[in-house]
Design brief:
Blueprint (H helix, E strand, L loop, with lengths): L1 E5 L1 H9 L3 H4 L3 E7 L4 E7 L7 E9 L5 H12 L5 H12 L3 E2 L3 E2 L4 H10 L7 E7 L2
Antiparallel strand pairs: 1-7, 2-3, 2-7, 3-4, 4-5, 4-6
Helix pairs in contact: 1-5, 3-4
Length: 134
């Protein structure tokens, strides 16, 4: 897990520098809290070598305790099951995510997270957390 806080530009720079191995995973997640809105993006490929994937998105005014709850799910899982599937099941039960059509999977962290952070460029302060899941 990587968490960054600060100006949207600084956080975007840090997210773009996340190791490329993170976006090569089958499932990973980005949660962003801005001044007055929050978004979560769950990136998923069905197999590691898939060229395409989907992005499930959710938005609201606040993330609330989403990061803490996802951390609790991972700890409770204890590595017994695919963490991405455990997180997805928990998210599906508690939040209304919208899943986009299959599209080319991002090849870099900048490609994955840059468009999300552009939506927060007018904010004064953001917090972004990336979780590597499967």
């Amino acid at each position: 897990m990587h968490t960054y806080m600060g100006s949207p530009a600084n956080v975007a720079t840090n997210l773009a520098a996340v190791p490329s191995s993170l976006v090569e995973r089958r499932v990973y997640m980005l949660m962003v809290q801005g001044d007055d809105r929050a978004e979560a993006h769950l990136f998923e490929r069905f197999a590691f070598d898939d060229e395409e994937g989907t992005i499930a998105t959710w938005s609201d005014h606040k993330l609330g305790d989403m990061v803490m709850r996802m951390t609790d799910v991972l700890i409770a899982n204890g590595g017994a099951h695919c963490p991405g599937e455990q997180v997805k099941a928990h998210l599906d039960a508690e939040h209304d995510f919208s899943v986009g059509a299959p599209a080319p999977a991002p090849k870099t962290a900048a490609e994955a997270f840059g468009p999300v952070m552009e939506g927060f460029s007018g904010d004064k302060f953001v917090q972004a957390t990336v979780m590597a899941l499967c």
